[in-house]
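User: Can you fold this complex?
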Amino acid sequence: MKLRYKFTVMDMGGEFAAVPVGDDAAKFHGMLKLNEVSAIILSKLKDEVKIMDIHNALKEKYDESTDEEIAEKLMPFLHYLFRSGLLMIKEDERKLFIVRK
Amino acid sequence: MLDGFKSDVLYLYSKFNLEIFIMKITNPELKVVRFNADDVIATSIGALTGKTGLFYVDNGNGGYDSFNGEFGEFNASLYEITGLYAWEYNVGGDRDRLISAKNGGMVYMPDVGYPIPASVLAQNAPQTYDANLDSGVYYSNGVSYYEQYWNQ
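Assistant: Here's the predicted assembly.
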């Protein structure tokens, strides 16, 4: 999975904001307000990445968190990005996002 | 009788009937996932009381075990339906596998490879529910289910 647009993440003293850059600034009009966790997630998504790569990056940063606590932070944000059209996923990743019969 | 026990109540929508499961809990760790596989049971809670049959229970390892059980007697004062998210996951054929997550827990689907918070699934439900499917995929939190279906 990977972000559809290129963002740059700015640290504004503990709060973070992601703004689209380059040509993508014309395609996505907006800004994402992030916390530290979602900033880490977003930074991993600038290149093609598997969910476990993001999970492990969070685990490295928050080593006292359980895997479930990590998932509880990671999945809602990924779902938000996906529902917002900001996330491109591969076919084998659809099961993480879509319910099907 | 479920004395003071907050039951996992799994709602399953089918094209023909709304099936509501209430089970007599003999093992509080059990999560009922299915009852009498293909049977349409009832559309009212009263019709379920005292029924016995084969329960399919999530064994926590991506599959389910079955055991004989009995429906408990419904008593509204004993039930608390809050923060319940139910997930129907189809593997292969219809409704091969059901997983319930209580009070915002995690749902582990064997071939997804990553735990998904039940609350995330519940949010996705309105976007993916298709009433034209023979057996719909349906999620809700307990409050909306209660308001919509419980008093039928």
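The interface with chain A takes residues 89-90, 94, 106, 109, 111-117, 119-121, 123-125, 127-128, 130, 133, 135, 137 of chain B (CB under 8 Å). Residues 1-49, 55-60, 71-104, 124-152 of chain B have pLDDT under 50 and may be disordered.
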